[in-house]
Specification:
The protein has one domain: 3-Layer(aba) Sandwich (Rossmann fold), CATH 3.40.50.150. It is α/β, with parallel strands linked by helices and 202 residues long. Helix content is 29%, strand content 27%.
């Protein structure tokens, strides 16, 4: 069995099937159809920045974070071409001081939460998101759905609804947990959970 490559290595090798060079339609549908608090937003695992840029165009002050300098350099170039201002920083979201721009009113991750294969780390990830959100801040997470039987097809990591609930419930009120599909360049698009949450207040 070959060792799983890191995201940094996959960007170095241009092996990034999740990059679609446009904002994910799930984010667009969410922001344009529901009341989402304006102000500052963080895009966790922002990759080459398409979702960050879309949020900035639509009035958010955006911070995008990623581990890959290759991805972030592309994100900065895209933002410059789009003539929008985003803050992109390289670092491990799970460690160190809060990202620049915190606290945020809105957090988005397109397949970042599900990459950690250990329940304790899902729990830590949710706690970290809550730490950097303002009171009543909202989090939209797109998560691989374990209900899909892919056979031999590759795809993103998959979680069950109960695994998501167990990880996030101490820190977030789940407003909705619905089935959908990743915006994807190839068919069939992977099945996902679209999880909309609000930070719990003590």
């Amino acid at each position: 069995m070959t060792e799983k490559k890191s995201f940094v290595e996959r960007y170095q090798e241009n092996d990034t099937p999740w990059e679609i060079n446009r904002p994910d339609h799930n984010l667009i549908d969410f922001v344009t159809s529901l009341p989402v608090p304006g102000g500052s937003a963080i895009d966790l695992g922002c990759g080459t920045g398409d979702n960050s840029i879309w949020l900035a165009v639509h009035g958010f002050q955006v911070t995008g974070c990623d581990l890959s300098d290759i991805a972030l350099n592309k994100a900065r170039a895209k933002a410059e071409q789009a003539k929008v201002r985003c803050t992109f920083y390289q670092g491990d979201f799970m460690q160190g001081p809060p990202p620049p721009g915190a606290p945020f009113s809105f957090a988005f991750d397109r397949g970042c939460f599900h990459t950690f294969g250990i329940p304790a780390i899902w729990h830590r990830f949710a706690a970290r998101v809550a730490d950097i959100l303002a009171d009543n801040g909202q989090w939209l997470s797109l998560i691989g759905n374990k209900d899909e039987d892919r056979g031999d097809r590759e795809g993103p990591p998959q979680l069950s609804a109960s695994q998501i609930v167990e990880a996030v419930e101490p820190f977030f009120e789940i407003i909705s947990l619905t089935r959908g599909h990743f915006d994807f360049d190839h068919s069939p698009a992977p099945l996902i959970w679209i999880c909309h949450m609000r930070k719990r207040t003590l």
